[in-house]
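[09:14] KT: can someone run the structure on this one? pasting the chain below
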Amino acid sequence: MSKTITISSREQFSELLKSSSIVVADFYADWCGPCKQIAPFFEQLSRQLSQPGVATFVKINTETEAGKQVGAEYAVTSLPTFILFRHGSVVEQVRGSDPRRLQAVVEQLASDIEKAGQSGGGGGSSSASGSGSGGLAWRGADLPRGYTDLSDVINIPGLDWSNVDESVFSKRTLYSREKPSALNKSGGASDSKDWIESDTDEQVMLYVPFNATVKLHTLQITSLPPTEDEDEDEDELPMRPKTIKIFTNRPHILDFSEAEDTQATQEIELGEDDWNKDGTANIGLRFVRFQNVTSVVIFVVDGDGDSEKVRLDRIRLIGETGEKREMGKLEKIGDEPGE
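[09:31] RB: done, structure tokens below
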């Protein structure tokens, strides 16, 4: 017997996102040949991995009223499209009838499904930050609907930075999918140094190239400096960033004088109210300025205090990859030309 749930209303889908830790949604149409080709494979994954309250596989017919509403909400413009949710937030999208791609993405969730099942489930109403273990990325803030975490398309070997104390971490630390160790202890302190701090002053320059052209929608920065009661001199405590400049499509990292004199794609100033309980600032970008992006430079100009050090625990770049098709016209993808 199939364990796949057919969505008949927008409210039904919203409730499933709240009640199931993981939801895998298949957006399809009856006229779509590639949708029919991959449907048996989707059913096979559903039979293997579905667990009540833990992992739910659903089918959404985009020709129905409910399907049109949900499809529009998540910017579904081609068929088939598979969207994977964790605690109600999009973690991945797969477009087209590509069983190997879909299986690879779902397999990333398999260990999390198994662990969640062993711990008795844990419906989707829990925090988006989650446990930080397994194949699913820890998040300090929810993803905006219709957009995904672009960590998988960051060109890790091409990462660069300036004025960073390199004695305790590697470049990939800042973009790790793991939950920051500081959140596992009270007060933000940790013996495991999985964050970065500036070196000679509070300024930090980060260069992030991508393996694909992307459109950036949101920047999420997590900063968890220790508190004053942790036996450190207040003047030596690292700060959260305050002023940030972002530059796009640079072939390499900028030097500090060049960044000071160059017009930024966007400049951001953060205040105390911008940081949530997990120490994350969710920064909306001017989307029209961040189209066709191949790299970004993130320049932390100053911090929110008098210290000479700034601390960064995690950075998430949120958006989409590739060209987005026009809204209002669903296309099938996967057929050979002429079919």
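[09:33] KT: thanks! The mean pLDDT is 83.
[09:34] RB: yep, looked fine to me
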